[in-house]
Model the fold of this input.
Amino acid sequence: MSSDALSRDARHLALAQVGPAGQQSIADGAALLIGVGGIGCAAATYLASSGVGHILICDFDTVDATNLGRQVLYRPADIGALKAEIAVARLSELNPDIRVTAMTERLSDDALSEVVAQVDVVLDGCDNFATRFQVNDACVAARRYLISGAAIRLEGQLAVFGPDYDTSPCYRCLYAEADESLENCAGNGVLAPVPGVIGTMMAVEALKYLANNTAGDARLQLYDAAAMEFRSLKIKKRTNCPSCASSSEK
Ligand SMILES: [Zn+2]
Done:
């Protein structure tokens, strides 16, 4: 670890919940980020600044002018460029001691499973249910900790799943079918920092897990920004879940 890295990590090293061993685990850790939009930009920034050793970013979208209000890694000059590639450049600048990799192709189930198996934790901040279900199934199969976030209007949500899916519910236990109301920000609007709050909380959960290898109880946090309120709900495992019900037998 370079002396710059030691200085960067000083406040983590002083922290009982991280300390030198925890920071080393963070430096040895790998995180996969699905989507580098409003949520992903915030999560990625803190994962990188905190020294997560390898950050893989999966996003095939390009920067659009309507993204700039909340997707804070991008500048007007980036319009038209691939988000994942710009994010890699910005994050590498933010912390030259880590490795950041862009994946700009839509991944098949097999390709995604292969990538998920290589990382310690998956952060899903994507904008569609098809991908969320695909990511969930790969995390259940590979027994990886899944941190899932979404934001729309003045509402955000955050949930953690796994990595022991014999006992933990999965994303499909929470959402049996696509809930179109959560689908995207385009038609509904979103207050710019709300995805930033959710992405930042996802980074907190990822760092706690990487530092201590201890997963939180599967639960859903609902953020009502209009009322400045959080609600926490326990997520129940569905007995007939198509993804995790028989994960112990797979
Ligand atoms: Zn399930």
